[in-house]
């Protein structure tokens, strides 16, 4: 059995290396060109239409506000990987991996934008009158390939069971390491908290995430900024290190074992893509219920999701690890996932450990809430609302089982299951890319949308 698991892990490592990174990179570049580099041409407009309109009444129809859809997405994408995955990328790819993480973030924006545009374009109302959508709907209605939509739904619904177990184990082991609470109690507590949120329906999920996500992001990034200001003299050196080592091999130094340029690019791309979930097909499920007057307007919110997740939260972790120098300490390479905690402890003492632990708990709990929502929507698509309720109970039970380490052997299959979701979704987005282009052109040339917004802005400033 051990040999089989090792073979599965080796295949998974290969698959999530060059093959899938290349697929996502090429798809992102193709869509960036097709959509005429919109993310580089309209950054100020996109910011004004998203974060600049948070307190305005949203235009159009929907179940959630656009901001609630964004925070629901971020609940899932901002997770433990933002804290423990970034230092691993630095230790195995060098500081230059941070630069390539930024590059893939900008390229991935077009892919994530396209997914969300299609989610709004092909969404529909369920029996409760709520808007639902995502890859399973645009595969079925847009491509007329219901079998592909069913494939996506079944694969995601099943994949989320071990995924919930891993999340449950993550929060239970984090709490045990810090305050020695037995994992079973943490698992039960987490299951109760998640139940109170998800059984209240989509609107309660939206209300909870719009409060929790800004708080947890500000709490963690704020603490990271304090460390950055304490180390402000190191900032120019850190930036220089990131940019220079992105293009030239970095030799072994201190706790770092050295990295070739290929490794640096791979780790940077991998961290950026895994963190913001561009192309995975999960984000459009969160954006489908949003209140909007045009698919493209909601697509802008998914671009902001990458800004917050990768360009802000992941970068905050990277700067803490690099400016504190913990990545150079002896033995750092043997425990890269713990480097963020080491860095925070270095500056805040014992409180630093609690800050990271608290951030991890918040990140993981909010991730679990939205994972249950994603899984329930697959069951609803396949079998109806009653099946969605059954799956919610299954996912909550999986938290407790995962907390005590049940079925760890199936966790090895997680990445392969994710590939079974990602590949059909990316193919569907590429096949429907001409529609995305048409919708984007319609939005930017219509007197009802972009041109009207620009006129209103000019009237205010004039």
Q: Can you give a write-up of this model?
A:
This protein is mainly α and 462 residues long. It has one domain (2-432): Amino acid/polyamine transporter I, CATH 1.20.1740. Helices cover 76% and strands 1% of the residues. The protein has 21 helices and 2 strands. It has helices at 2-15, 18-34, 38-41, 43-49, 66-77, 80-93, 96-121, 135-142, 146-179, 183-198, 202-230, 235-245, 261-276, 283-287, 295-324, 339-348, 350-383, 385-403, 414-431, 433-445, 450-461, and strands at residues 124-125, 131-132. The chain has a two-stranded antiparallel ribbon with strand order 1-2. It is globular and about 60 Å long. The N and C termini lie far apart (72 Å).
Measured as a percent range, the helix fraction is over 70%
- How many individual domains? 1
Low-confidence stretches: none
List the secondary-structure elements in sequence, H or E.
HHHHHHHEEHHHHHHHHHHHHHH
Spatial strand order of the main sheet? 1-2
Under the CATH scheme, the architecture is: Up-down Bundle
Please indicate the percent range of residues in DSSP E strands (runs of 2 or more).
under 5%
CATH class: Mainly Alpha
- Total strands: the figure is 2
Structural class: mainly alpha
CATH topology, what is it called? Amino acid/polyamine transporter I
Organism: Siminovitchia fortis
Keywords: Cell membrane, Membrane, Symport, Transmembrane, Transmembrane helix, Transport
Pfam family, one: Na_Ala_symp
InterPro entries: Na/Ala_symport (IPR001463)
